[in-house]
Description:
Elements: H1 9-19, E1 28-30, H2 38-41, E2 45-48, H3 59-67, H4 71-76, E3 78-81, H5 85-97, E4 101-105, H6 111-119, E5 123-126, H7 131-145, E6 148-149, H8 156-162, H9 164-172, E7 178-182, H10 187-199, E8 204-210, H11 215-222, H12 245-254, E9 257-261, H13 263-277, H14 283-293, E10 305-309, H15 315-318
Parallel strand pairs: 2-10, 3-4, 3-6, 4-5, 7-8, 7-10, 8-9
Antiparallel strand pairs: 1-2
Helix pairs in contact: 1-3, 1-8, 3-5, 3-8, 5-6, 8-10, 9-10, 10-12, 13-14
Amino acid sequence: MSIGVAPGIDEIRAAAERIRGFVRRTPLLPAAPVRNGADHARGLLLKLESLQVTGSFKPRGAINAVLSLPPDTLRRGIVTASGGNHGLAVAYAGYATGAPATIFLPRSVARDKVANVEGWGARAVVTGEDWDESNRAALQHAEAESLAYIHAFADPDVIAGQGTVALEILDESPELDTLIVAIGGGGLISGIAIAAKALKPGIRIVGVEPTGAPTLHASIAAASLVVLPSLGTAAVTLAPRRSEALNLAIVTATVERIALVEDSEMFDAARWLWNEAGVAAELSGAAAVAAVLAGCYRPEAGERVCAVVCGAGKDALVAPEPPGRLLG
């Protein structure tokens, strides 16, 4: 599959077969019963990709892309850039296939993610202030060493792998009306939207971005790719300054709207997930739930909604509790 061509449902189904045994089929659970936020959470389903190997949905795309490489290319090694989760996934893909992996990470990355990348046997290179700068370094390294580069969100094989999340959700809950999905660069929502719309054309896809990194929200408003002049969110895995044309085209065609959430609302949602469901989510993992709890997306009466909890983390446990702030 060539870069720049969106995968279809056949490629996503093929990806599901290719990655079988390398990733987990994650649980789809009702949020209820809950104490706080009950009105917002009534009927909400949670797709717990936080329980995926390496702690996020990312291995689906990484494994699919790596297994799609020619064997000789794979043996030479793989390179990527990441805010953390995709890097962990490519490190895992290298470990699972025996391929040497080099992961470029920005200086804002969480220290434990650097350690986890190295724990999977990959080389971690911390450089650049954000993902975009790390990505430029990764591309230069891949070209200089003639190594395969795995893009975090614009590689069609990565997008196809991420789309397998929707196959699992709709297999278990075909009556769903709405899927709510966090957006970083747009790989997850691109794959989910392609698969979900192919299986159920009337389904509603809602994206969620931080107010401090509205990359695709701004690009859709401008009808062209926008480079954000600055970033202002602690959810660094949702914070590229620029998406790619492929993702913008898919999201423009398939996503009904993009809701923006504050960091404080993601912290609240992460705490809610921990207190109500025992789910440990990082800010990005809690973003889709935050959109519902904070009222940034308000389901209609009887609307069947699933929020993808896309990444694990300890943000609920380390964030200070704001005084006098309650959900409900």
